[in-house]
Design goal:
Length: 317
């Protein structure tokens, strides 16, 4: 299946329309500012060419206001664009708190998606229409970049780090998703699809896709299988801090530094636990870097996030 190469990708979100408007206006501004220079250059090159009899006496008049205006007006216009694009940049990096979270793991050469329900997809991601969706992304190997032209969003996907993207698609349809960072032999075929569905179609798809224990549920299974619960289980705090309700809390490290527990902190604490040890505990946890793949780490993180009190994962009110 090969899609035709479009000169202008479709617009599948309000944000995409705003990006196009910004680029179009900036294109017009640059044309307006540079066109007089090139047009006058051409006219004068002809008028004052060698051998042509023309009046070459230098003009004596100085017009200070004219000179000031051609510096100040372009400056103000460009500053307007600076604030306009900065506002959009901040907006693009601030997902709404109630956004639907979908995990993305990139690896040579495929895209894997995990929904909170537990549904998993490869090279294809279903999303509901008109709802904010946040992608939490990481790579299993090298640097990739997730690019959805129809949504005008692109973000590098890095190993050992979570990056994010968010969008709110407002037109149902199937849109291409690409890798926009050269990542090896099959980079060019690391492509997928974003399928935007109406709420009821999406709900039907979600039900059909199954849950496979749910994301947090799979994390809970791992938590016990790996033996995490022997040190981090409910009521056990001799060797390790309790993880109940850990997400979003501020913890003090042995170094005296205080950190807020987020996805990245949890990931690092599983992969390289002795880098940031909680104050009052010995650095005895084994690293899980070579043991878990990124999807499993995301499952564990989802489980820890779901915990409120008691054992991690016990859902509070
Ligand atoms: Cu992955 Cu290019």
């Amino acid at each position: 299946m090969s899609a035709p190469i479009l000169l202008w990708p479709p617009i599948a979100s309000a944000y995409a329309g705003r990006v196009d408007l910004l680029i179009a206006c900036f294109g017009v501004l640059v044309a307006l500012l540079s066109a007089p220079v090139f047009i006058l250059m051409a006219i004068w090159a002809v008028r004052y060419r060698k051998g042509r009899r023309a009046d070459r006496t230098p003009g004596q008049d100085r017009n200070v206001w004219l000179e000031v205006s051609w510096s100040v007006i372009p400056f103000l216009l460009i500053m307007g664009f600076f604030f306009w694009s900065t506002a959009m940049f901040l907006d693009a990096r601030t997902p709404p708190a109630d956004a639907l979270v979908i995990n993305v793991v990139a690896k040579q050469w495929m895209w894997k998606f995990q929904h909170a329900s537990g549904a998993r997809e490869i090279n294809e991601v279903h999303v509901p229409l008109g709802r904010a969706v946040r992608l939490t992304m990481t790579s299993q190997d090298v640097i990739h970049s997730l690019y959805v032209p129809a949504l005008r969003i692109k973000q590098d996907v890095l190993p050992e780090r979570y990056t994010q993207l968010w969008f709110n698609a407002d037109r149902p349809g199937t849109y291409p998703l690409r890798c926009a960072e050269y990542c090896g032999t099959d980079h060019s075929v690391m492509i997928g699809r974003v399928i935007v569905q109406r709420e009821e179609d999406y709900a039907r798809w979600l039900a059909r896709a199954g849950t496979d224990g749910g994301l947090a549920g799979r994390g809970q299974t791992l938590f016990h299988r790996l033996g995490c619960s022997s040190c981090h289980g409910a009521g056990v705090t001799e060797r390790a801090p309790s993880l109940a309700g850990i997400y979003g809390r501020t913890v003090t490290l042995a170094s005296g530094r205080a950190v807020r527990v987020d996805d990245q902190y949890l990931r690092d604490s599983i992969i390289l636990p002795n880098k940031d040890v909680t104050a009052g505990y010995a650095p005895i946890m084994p690293p899980y870097g070579g043991v878990l793949d990124e999807e499993q780490v995301l499952e564990l993180v989802a489980y820890l996030k779901s915990s409120r009190n008691g054992e991690p994962g016990e859902r509070g009110s």
